[in-house]
Amino acid sequence: MENNPKKITESSREPIKIHKEIRSVFEGQESAKKMSYDDIEKDLNSKIMKITMIIKDKFPELLKYLDEMPMTLPTEKNPEITIKNLNAYYDSLNAILTKYKLEHS
User: Fold this and answer.
1) What is the dihedral of CA 62, 93, 41, 29, to 10 degrees?
2) Distance between CA 18 and CA 33 in Å, rounded?
3) What's the farthest any 2 CA atoms get from each other in the chain?
């Protein structure tokens, strides 16, 4: 049998490139896990404030929907603010803004 060295072609580099991208995403998730609860809460509050200010300044017609959001009208007597709740609230703000931008571009 003939011993052919493997040629490195652009197509053979593709799996390496994909592996590096996957590894970088994974490493990013690992560093996110190392963040403290307070850091995550602070980051989410900052994102919520930023998107709320964008809505207020650039899309004031959406302000009426913010008052109707379940996050602003808790159903429990003493609701606890959790990372999960903050993330859900941010996601809902982002969804409203994204949908509006798509429909009114």
Assistant:
1) -150
2) 23
3) 78
